[in-house]
Design a protein that fits this description.
Elements (H helix, E strand, L loop, with lengths): L6 E9 L2 E9 L5 E9 L8 H32 L9
């Protein structure tokens, strides 16, 4: 049995009504994949910074997940010579 630790660091940057998030996955072999997210408060909504943080973070993690799937698909195709679209990921 093997245990591996991957770390995701999320950085949030608030600029007025906008919140930007970067999710950085660090893999043991020093590979990094970065996901990005953004949220913008509607000027008619009351200020709730935590909600903006949550939305931006969720979007960054979603972007990161999609990039990880693309990496996995590429690696599968390289090994199997079968388009990953025909495989269930």
């Amino acid at each position: 049995m093997t245990t591996k630790d991957w770390t995701i660091q999320v950085r949030l940057d608030e600029q007025g009504d906008d919140t930007f998030a970067d999710a950085i996955l660090s893999i043991e072999n020093k590979t990094e994949i970065r996901g990005h997210g953004h949220s913008k408060r509607n000027p008619s909504d009351e200020s709730a910074p935590q909600i903006g943080d949550e939305l931006a973070c969720a979007r960054a993690l979603s972007d990161l997940a999609h990039q990880m799937l693309a990496v996995a698909a590429s690696e599968i195709e390289a090994r199997t010579h079968v388009p990953a679209t025909s495989l269930e990921l």
